[in-house]
């Protein structure tokens, strides 16, 4: 694990140099990774953007299973002795945050590598597929939505079961692909839908606000539901 972390940081350092050199192209390359799909219309054939869903699901899968499994094993013993639910939840939340952040870091490094392949290529892609300029805030939106969806899956996996968390995340992402609605956060992470989500004010402001609300609701659910769990009965 330590070796992997060091390697990831080394690769991130290389990617950071590319990002600093070509910041204007970096957000476009992130949009290429999270290309997604165009909003479906009556005249078009809807297809599920599998690559986009896979990218969004990787952090969800990373944070959904270990905390729930730990709760059934060593975590349950620790809680029975100490009774400190907030500390246990906080420790698992820190672990989940680190895992999701590591995956997002890999995505950003991949985008930085793409940006380093050449400005002309990136500009050609932009002219071909993006209906509106891709702003640097798109990168923030992607990271925020991944954090929010992962937090929701984390809470569902602990309060109900990991399978419920993963299935709920898949359904939510598929709905985001099918419906171009602002409360379906996946719409804020598709390069194909940059500037197409109709919102009453700044797109990034609404996205960050909704993500913060979802993360807060997930934390509240954990703090309310988990202390009521029968740790002896579930073993």
UniProtKB/TrEMBL annotation:
Isomerase is among the record's keywords: no
Record protein name field: ABC transporter permease
Superkingdom field: Bacteria
Keywords, alphabetical: Membrane, Signal, Transmembrane, Transmembrane helix
Signal peptide range: 1-23
Listed transmembrane segments: 45-69, 89-118, 138-156, 163-185, 205-226
């Amino acid at each position: 694990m330590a070796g992997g972390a060091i390697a990831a940081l080394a690769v991130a350092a290389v990617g950071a140099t590319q990002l600093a050199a070509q910041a204007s192209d970096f957000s476009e390359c992130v949009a290429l990774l999270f290309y997604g799909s165009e909003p479906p219309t009556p005249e078009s054939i809807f297809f599920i953007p599998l690559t986009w869903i896979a990218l969004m699901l990787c952090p969800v899968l990373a944070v959904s299973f270990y905390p729930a499994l730990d709760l059934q094993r060593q975590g349950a013993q620790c809680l029975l002795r100490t009774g400190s639910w907030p500390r246990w939840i906080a420790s698992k939340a820190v672990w989940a945050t680190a895992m999701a952040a590591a995956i997002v870091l890999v995505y950003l490094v991949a985008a930085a590598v793409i940006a380093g392949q050449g400005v002309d290529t990136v500009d050609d892609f932009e002219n071909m597929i993006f209906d509106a300029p891709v702003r640097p805030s798109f990168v923030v939106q992607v990271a925020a939505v991944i954090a929010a969806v992962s937090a929701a899956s984390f809470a569902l996996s602990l309060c109900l079961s990991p399978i419920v968390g993963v299935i709920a995340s898949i359904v939510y992402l598929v709905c985001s692909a099918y419906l171009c609605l602002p409360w379906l956060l996946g719409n804020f992470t598709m390069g194909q839908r940059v500037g197409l989500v109709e919102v009453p004010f700044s797109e990034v402001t609404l996205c960050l606000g909704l993500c913060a609300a979802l993360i807060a609701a997930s934390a509240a659910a954990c703090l309310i539901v988990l202390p009521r769990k029968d740790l002896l009965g579930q073993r």
